[in-house]
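Methods: example folding runs. The two proteins below were folded one after another, and each record is reproduced exactly as written to the output file, sequence line first and structure-token line second.
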Amino acid sequence: MFLNTLSGRFLALTILFVMLAEVFIFVPSIARFREDYMMDRLERAQIASLALLANDMIDADLEDELLENAGVFNVVLRRDEVRQLVLASEIPSPIVATYDLRDAPAGTLIIDAMKRLWNPADEVVRVIGNPTRDAGQLIEITMPTRPLRAEMLDYGLRILILSAVISVFTATLLFFAVRQLLVKPIEGVVTAMKSYAAAPEDARRIIEPTATVRELSDAEHALKSMQTELTNVLRQRERLASLGSAVSKVSHDLRNILTTAQLFADRIESSEDPVVTRMVPKLMGSIGRAVNLCESTLAFGKAEEPPPALNRVTLADVVNDAVEGERLAASEDVQFEEEIPAGLVVRADPEQLYRVLSNLIRNARQAIETAKRGGVIRVIGGECDRFWTIEVRDNGPGLPLKAREHLFKPFQGGARKGGAGLGLAIAAELIRGHGGSLKLVKSDQDGTVFLIELPKSIVTEVQAAR
């Protein structure tokens, strides 16, 4: 239906408001017309009385003709403080009202005009005014109201017709102007949204702002930004899905290779070389973790990270394994410090906790080595009433701004140039699986501090996500 459209409603409202404005014009106009009509009768009556004053003797027929031309029944002049009935005829009915037009307020004129317009009775009224050209102190006439009302209705009808024509013409012009300036651009935005919704992955369907109206231009730019971001997210999800499938396949084959390597490591374990004897446990542990990681990756490709197998774990052992693994890969400028209270035991999955610490320590090491200024990485353990806490501190250059804005988001929160940001995303997910949290405490030119909080009480996954 046309009135349910923006154009239709705007057209209807325009006509309504223009007609309302014309009503406010009509009321004072009709009052002014009534005043002018009665002033005209006063002037005619004055002219007719001048004929009598010029010739004291006129016959009755001429007097009636003068009164008829003036449209009045009687004419009274006040001259030289003397009130004189100049022209007179029979009054068909009693006088019902007297109107004094000398300095009459506008409100009074409007009210009297509306009363006359709504009163169809033919009545006789008295009108008082000032004679023109100082022809006396006062002129007074009696006149019928029917001709006055008929003239007022005719004038009002012409005003309404003219108002209607102006309203329709104005509304039509505004209709086409608004349709060209607003409705068509809005329809273009709607069409662009529908086209984008049909294939949001297609970047060619993203709207290109063309509106010249500031508000519509702002809306188009906001829509373009939203569509661009959504398209990037959809593409990223598609790449993640493809990457997950590829990683699962690689992990499957890599697990078989590592299983073979594990068999060879078992044979090496029987060597009597003291260096080999000391290194084999580390090698076996590394291969075992790699096999577990491959199996976990396969599980992740099917659903999500497996739930942690919570056990009582000596924190110092896990931290030492993670630090030793990174110490072998670190340059001489990187120092490691472990501040773990002796005998501190936490409830955690040792393999997953190792992965979290290894990721955080590796990021810190790489940041320090990238800065080429040397540094210290400290792992500090502690506890309070509710949590076991682990801090990983470094005095490196701090995280880039982009990494801080998209922290813990895969492929967005990379801590170093070329990094994918998967390490921090995986670490945060593993800690959430424990019911705890991984937080960035600070990151600036003086270094970075990450805080792990592991709850001492068992919490649900929903509570951990809060």
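Second run, written to the same file directly after the first:
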Amino acid sequence: MSGLSIAIVGAGIGGLTTALTLARQGHSVTLIERRPGFSEVGAGLQLSPNASRILVKLGLGPALRRVATLPERVVVRGISSGRRIGEVALGPYMQQRYGAPYWVVHRADLQTILLDAVRSEAAIRIVTGRKVEEVQDGPEHAQLVWTSSNGTHERLTADVVIGADGVWSKVRRAVGDTTSPIFHGYIAWRATLDRKSAPPELAGNETGLWLGAKGHVVHYPIFSGHLINVVAIEKAKEPVDGWAAPGRAEELLSHYSSAAPALRALLQQPQEWLRWSLFRHPIRCLAQGRIALMGDAAHPVLPFLAQGAALAIEDAATLGAVLAKQPHNVAEALAAYGNHRLERVRRIQAEGRKNGRIYHSGALVSFWRNKIMQMIGPESMSNRYDWIYGFHTPE
């Protein structure tokens, strides 16, 4: 049987990984991106073993090793006191335990690697500057309608349509979910700085996690270790517009006015901050008929477990596995995909919300949180998430 015709809406990390996976299985893929071109979106991201294992299997390991960083540990500190609360083992420990690395990488580097691989596949057609307006399922095929930059409408017919178009997904409506994402009450600030300009105690090969009642800060080296990626979380009553709203450094520094000197020094370095709002959306349906959702279109997760990109990569591998197993019955294959993913992604969503409460807890809870982290130790802190990091694509 010849391969399926597959339309993927959205060319982010998840969409690119899915296109590459499915094209290598012999399917014909049309990858549709709303933006007119590809540019960096965001700064850094974390690729835990459940994701890096999949990318290595796709043959991207050598390219990623040239640009990724392998932090040795996560060092957890109190925002105000600066005292070390505990550690989480990464580096060699993760590689040995899970058989795959825990990488941190510049998002643009990962996107470039994926895009180069996608462009090398003759079975993938990339269409940019198209806004998908409508998706319809049908017994023999699915259809979508897009608007091009000059306002013309075009219709595409495919055996499968995959929505990888983010938290505000248009494709989600086609599986019967018309509800809107809910603002979770947090805004994330992101920036990068030259590693040489960071305070010496924060410039090592490690991830820093600073916990406080009003928010938390994460930082780690990216861009082959030359830059440091910083993400600061702030509680907020109202969301900001878009994925990259400019932020005034003075406003962030005011929010973290009581931070420890080393963290304050780090936050004072970036010249430009960008902000995005954190949204949640309960999972209602991952697939229906010939249409499937993946990544944030299916299950947006809060960044308190660093699993957003990893889950999208897992989705891509799982979609590939179920379509390879049942190529003659698309609806059954996609239903199997939904069944494989539903419980896991719901659990990770819930764990992310729980982590947010723990990170931002008040004095009494944080006292016991700190005691427990000190007692558990770095390796056991990692082992708590065996169920996440040990993921393997279903056979």
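Comment on the second run: The two ends are 21 Å apart (CA to CA).
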